[in-house]
Amino acid sequence: MVQIAPSILSANFANLWAHVAQVEAAGAEMLHIDVMDGHFVPNITIGPLVVQALRDKSRMTFDVHLMITNPDQFIGEFVKAGADIISVHAEACTHLHRTLQTIRNHGIKAAVALNPATPLTVIEYVLPYLDMVLLMTVNPGFGGQRFIPEMVEKIERLNTWRRERKLNFTIQVDGGINQETAPLVVKAGADILVAGSYIFGAADISTAIRSLRERCG
């Protein structure tokens, strides 16, 4: 069954915990936590202190997406704050294999994120060390962007690699996910859907999450 990971980038930060509690009560398995530094992407969001404050109140899997330069410097802090999975961008890592080892040595799951224009070949030789691959279907940095349709083929290709090489990583998709795009990416091979504005911008969060599940069968 497809998993839903609401992205707090689109939540109301003035009432963040209430929004997080709503998605957890609605059955979301994961909480996607977008960390931006204003350098790797043109925006600034949150740090470990916010993650720690939420961790004490939630049982969801905390999926921390580091959209930052020099992610190695902050891995330990986010692990201590309560991250269950950390995604680093291949584009931001000089020694990607070493960075993944660092994450795994902390006893949590390791993931790599790829921007839309970054080819899959960049991560081909680290696939056996991954618990998850995050494919961006918009350019990272802002919520509410339009899904890039060419990314469906990229998801299909990664899914083919996974099947042919008998690997067990999950495929997560982030960007422009809604009732129309969700079935496309799931059919292509996605296991986890990150959705921000579609969920937190809905009149009813529970209905939005349920509609994504229903549309994906």
From TrEMBL:
<dbReference type="GO" id="GO:0006098">
    <property type="term" value="P:pentose-phosphate shunt"/>
</dbReference>
<dbReference type="InterPro" id="IPR000056">
    <property type="entry name" value="Ribul_P_3_epim-like"/>
</dbReference>
<feature type="active site" description="Proton acceptor">
    <location>
        <position position="34"/>
    </location>
</feature>
<keyword id="KW-0170">Cobalt</keyword>
<dbReference type="InterPro" id="IPR026019">
    <property type="entry name" value="Ribul_P_3_epim"/>
</dbReference>
<protein>
    <recommendedName>
        <fullName>Ribulose-phosphate 3-epimerase</fullName>
        <ecNumber>5.1.3.1</ecNumber>
    </recommendedName>
</protein>
<comment type="pathway">
    <text>Carbohydrate degradation.</text>
</comment>
<feature type="active site" description="Proton donor">
    <location>
        <position position="174"/>
    </location>
</feature>
<feature type="binding site">
    <location>
        <position position="176"/>
    </location>
    <ligand>
        <name>substrate</name>
    </ligand>
</feature>
<keyword id="KW-0413">Isomerase</keyword>
<feature type="binding site">
    <location>
        <begin position="141"/>
        <end position="144"/>
    </location>
    <ligand>
        <name>substrate</name>
    </ligand>
</feature>
<keyword id="KW-0464">Manganese</keyword>
<dbReference type="Pfam" id="PF00834">
    <property type="entry name" value="Ribul_P_3_epim"/>
</dbReference>
<keyword id="KW-0479">Metal-binding</keyword>
<feature type="binding site">
    <location>
        <position position="174"/>
    </location>
    <ligand>
        <name>a divalent metal cation</name>
    </ligand>
</feature>
<comment type="similarity">
    <text>Belongs to the ribulose-phosphate 3-epimerase family.</text>
</comment>
<feature type="binding site">
    <location>
        <position position="65"/>
    </location>
    <ligand>
        <name>substrate</name>
    </ligand>
</feature>
<feature type="binding site">
    <location>
        <position position="32"/>
    </location>
    <ligand>
        <name>a divalent metal cation</name>
    </ligand>
</feature>
<dbReference type="GO" id="GO:0019323">
    <property type="term" value="P:pentose catabolic process"/>
</dbReference>
<feature type="binding site">
    <location>
        <position position="7"/>
    </location>
    <ligand>
        <name>substrate</name>
    </ligand>
</feature>
<dbReference type="InterPro" id="IPR013785">
    <property type="entry name" value="Aldolase_TIM"/>
</dbReference>
<keyword id="KW-0862">Zinc</keyword>
<dbReference type="GO" id="GO:0005737">
    <property type="term" value="C:cytoplasm"/>
</dbReference>
<dbReference type="GO" id="GO:0046872">
    <property type="term" value="F:metal ion binding"/>
</dbReference>
<feature type="binding site">
    <location>
        <position position="65"/>
    </location>
    <ligand>
        <name>a divalent metal cation</name>
    </ligand>
</feature>
<keyword id="KW-0119">Carbohydrate metabolism</keyword>
<feature type="binding site">
    <location>
        <begin position="174"/>
        <end position="176"/>
    </location>
    <ligand>
        <name>substrate</name>
    </ligand>
</feature>
<feature type="binding site">
    <location>
        <begin position="196"/>
        <end position="197"/>
    </location>
    <ligand>
        <name>substrate</name>
    </ligand>
</feature>
<comment type="function">
    <text>Catalyzes the reversible epimerization of D-ribulose 5-phosphate to D-xylulose 5-phosphate.</text>
</comment>
<dbReference type="GO" id="GO:0004750">
    <property type="term" value="F:D-ribulose-phosphate 3-epimerase activity"/>
</dbReference>
<feature type="binding site">
    <location>
        <position position="34"/>
    </location>
    <ligand>
        <name>a divalent metal cation</name>
    </ligand>
</feature>
<dbReference type="InterPro" id="IPR011060">
    <property type="entry name" value="RibuloseP-bd_barrel"/>
</dbReference>
